[in-house]
Amino acid sequence: MGLRTMLGLKEPFHVRQSRLATALETSAELPDMTLFQNRMISNHVRDLTFVDVGGLWGTNNEKVTLALQSGAKTATMADMQEMDNEWWQAFRRRAAQLNVSGYAEKLVNLDDPRVHEKLGTFDFVHCSGIVYHVPSPFYTIQRLASLTKRYLLLGSMVVPEVIVTESGELRFDGGQMIYIPAIGDRERTIVAEHFNGVSLSVAHINLASNEHFSRNGEINYGPWWWLYSSKTMKRMLEDIGFKVIEHAPAWEGRSHYFFCEKV
Ligand SMILES: C[S@@+](CC[C@H](N)C(=O)[O-])C[C@H]1O[C@@H](n2cnc3c(N)ncnc32)[C@H](O)[C@@H]1O
Fold it and tell me: For 46-69, how does the pLDDT look when each residue is reduced to its tens digit (9 = 90+)?
């Protein structure tokens, strides 16, 4: 079986026109090239195989089109959403509007212990918006490591090392994390005040929710499971076997991106 067939590529991929020309012809939002995460992709992905794990949902944040526009050899969208649901359709519409084609599509759960067998391995792995939505971030990043041949670009929501609100102080330095399913009332109040101040609405914190975290062993990847600082996340990446080459806050410090190389 050839590589193209293995990746599920139905036709040779190509980017038909330059991004500038595309911008004139499409209503799809183009990536902001001043953003750290977009620069890391466009500066390093040329001639590499690329996968965006969990790139659907809020499709304007997907990186498959940027990777192909930046000269990636192949690009794959991998997500646990049911194939052909509205998010896959929105992604395909966006790619078509940007005149990008030839990407592969895969339905996988990143937490599957065999994810590297089902998906394959890639020179450049992008994953943002997932690792604080999982019960075991260290395990999930290990799965990302199993997919990564060279680069991992990981984006995660983070909290400051110290949060001070009118209800008190909460520390996330020294490796302290909060497991949201077990969060206490005092901690919830302080985090809620902080999130209100930065216009974030998070279930079980400052957004009322009956959503369960897990039921009969079935994990719900919808809610946030963990709160941690960027320093703690960086240490996890290093302990899993990545060298963090560069990292930067995003969205005014609400999230953080780590550009890593496997060592
Ligand atoms: C919060 S959105 C993040 C979307 C985008 N990457 C971003 O940063 O805005 C989460 C996406 O990841 C997918 N996802 C969540 N958990 C996943 C898992 N364990 N395996 C594969 N995809 C997952 C969801 O289906 C959804 O499309």
Answer: 999 999 999 998 788 999 999 999
User: How much is the pLDDT for 1?
Assistant: 25
What pTM did the predictor assign?
A: 0.90
> To the nearest whole number, what is the mean pLDDT of the chain?
90
Cα dihedral: 112, 61, 100, 22 (round 10): 180
Tally of CB atoms within 10 A around 112: 13
Query: Is residue 224 within 6 Å of ligand 1 at its C-beta?
Result: no
Q: Is the dihedral of CA 16, 20, 26, 29 positive or negative?
A: positive
Q: Which residue has its alpha carbon closest to ligand 1 atom 9?
A: 61
Query: What residues does each domain of the chain span?
Result: 3-158+228-262, 162-219
Q: Which of 133, 152, 218, 225 is the pocket-test mutation for ligand 1 (most atoms within 8 Å of CB)? A: 133
CATH architecture for the domain at 3-158+228-262 = 3-Layer(aba) Sandwich (3.40)
